[in-house]
Write a structure and sequence with these properties.
alpha/beta, TIM Barrel, ten-stranded mixed beta sheet, two-stranded antiparallel sheet, 6 helices, globular, GH114_TIM-barrel, Glycoside-hydrolase family GH114 TIM-barrel domain-containing protein
C-alpha cells in the first residue's frame, strides 16, 4: 500500500524562485505531480516522437522547464502560472456530470481527462475534464479541477509561513521544523482543532479563489502527509482537516477529490466528504480497485509509466478516466510532453 512505500519524486529538479511583494513571500511554478522543482525524479515515462495532440501524444526526451514567478492577487503564497492563457479549447462533447442535491457536480465518469498542473494549454481533442493549478485559468468548455497543495507548504513560501503563521508549521519535539524529505516541503501542522481552523482560514481563501475563477472542483494534495510526519500527525487529524476543507469547497459549489492515499478507508473517505478520487499510479501499484470500492467509476487515474498505463486501460479503460502523462506533467509543445488516453 502507498503508506509503506516511498513516494516517487514526480517532477524534475528546479531552483525555487521567490518574489517578495509587500513583504509577502511568494513562489512556485507548477510542474511534476505537483511542481517540477519538488525533487529529482528516479524515472520518467518513455517518450517517443512528438505529434499533434489527439488521443495519443508522446514526445522526445525531457528537458527541465524554466520557472517564473510573479506576485499573485492573494496575500497568501501561491503558485504562478507557467504558461500564458491558452487558446480556447476545441469544441468537444462533454458528458454531463450528475448534479447533487447539495449543488456541486463531481466530474463525469469515464471522460477524456488531461492533467495540466505543469502548465495550461488547449486540451487535446476528446478531453472534457482538466485539472490545473489554482493560479491557472480554467479551460473553456470543459469540467475544471483546481489543484491546491493544502497539507504542505510550497517551496519558496517558507519565509511567508514562518513570518505569518509559524505556529502552523509542524515541529518536532526539539522545536525543529519537520520537512517532507521526498519533496523538500515544510509540513503543515493540523494536529489540533485550533490549528485546523487557522489553516482553513488560509487555504480556504485559495478554495474561494478556485470557485471565483470558475473551477468546478478541487483536489487537495498531500492528504497523506501524516504518513511522513515522524508520527506527529495522524490519519484522524488529516480526515478532520480534509472534512473542513471539503465543507469549504462544497459551500462554494465545488466538488472535492481525494488525492491518492489509498490507505484511507471508505468510511473515512465518506466521513471527510470526498466526491471522487484523483489517483496517481494506481495501476502501477495495484490500488485502482481500492478507489473504485469507494467511488465506483468516479475515479481519475494518472499513470506515468507505459506498463502502468497499459494495466489501467486493460482493467478499467471502459469505466474510469485514465491518462498517461510525463512525470513533469509538462505543457504541450515542450520536449518532455507525453499524453495518451485509453
Amino acid at each position: 500500500m502507498a503508506v509503506n512505500r516511498k513516494r516517487l519524486k514526480v517532477g524534475a529538479g528546479m531552483a525555487a524562485v521567490v518574489v517578495v511583494a509587500l513583504g509577502v513571500g511568494i513562489g512556485t511554478a507548477d510542474a511534476g505531480t505537483r511542481r517540477s522543482w519538488w525533487g529529482a525524479k528516479p524515472v520518467k515515462a518513455t517518450p517517443t516522437v512528438s505529434v499533434t495532440p489527439s488521443k495519443s501524444v508522446t514526445s522526445s526526451p525531457s528537458v527541465t522547464p524554466s520557472a517564473a514567478v510573479t506576485p499573485s492577487k492573494s496575500t497568501t503564497p501561491s503558485a504562478t502560472r507557467t504558461s500564458t492563457t491558452p487558446a480556447p479549447a476545441a469544441s468537444t462533447t462533454t458528458a454531463a456530470p450528475v448534479t447533487t442535491s447539495a449543488g456541486w457536480n463531481p466530474p463525469p465518469a469515464n471522460a477524456g481527462f488531461d492533467y495540466q498542473i505543469g502548465g495550461a494549454y488547449t486540451p487535446p481533442s476528446g478531453v472534457t475534464v482538466v485539472s490545473r493549478d489554482r493560479e491557472a485559468t480554467p479551460a473553456a468548455g470543459v469540467y475544471n479541477i483546481c489543484y491546491v497543495n493544502a497539507f504542505q507548504a510550497q517551496p519558496g513560501a517558507e519565509s511567508w509561513w514562518k513570518s505569518n503563521h509559524p505556529d502552523l508549521l509542524l515541529k518536532d519535539k526539539n522545536g525543529a521544523l519537520v520537512v517532507d524529505e521526498d519533496w523538500n516541503e515544510l509540513m503543515l501542522d493540523f494536529s489540533t482543532a485550533a490549528k485546523r481552523t487557522a489553516l482553513v482560514a488560509v487555504v480556504g481563501e485559495w478554495i474561494d479563489g478556485c470557485a471565483a475563477d470558475g473551477f468546478d472542483a478541487i483536489e487537495s494534495d498531500n492528504l497523506d502527509s501524516y504518513t511522513r510526519s515522524q508520527g506527529l500527525l495522524t490519519q484522524a487529524q488529516a480526515v478532520a482537516y480534509a472534512t473542513a476543507l471539503n465543507t469549504r469547497a462544497h459551500d462554494n459549489g465545488l466538488a472535492s477529490g481525494q488525492k491518492n492515499t489509498a490507505e484511507l478507508s471508505s468510511a473515512n473517505a465518506k466521513k471527510a466528504g470526498f466526491d471522487f478520487a484523483v489517483a496517481e499510479e494506481c495501476a502501477e501499484w495495484d490500488e485502482c480497485d481500492v478507489y473504485t470500492a469507494t467511488y465506483g467509476d468516479k475515479v481519475i487515474a494518472i499513470e506515468y509509466s507505459r506498463d502502468g498505463f497499459s494495466k489501467a486501460c486493460a482493467a478499467f479503460g471502459n469505466k474510469l478516466s485514465i491518462v498517461l502523462r510525463d512525470r513533469d506533467v509538462s505543457a504541450s509543445g515542450s520536449r518532455s510532453y507525453v499524453y495518451e488516453a485509453c
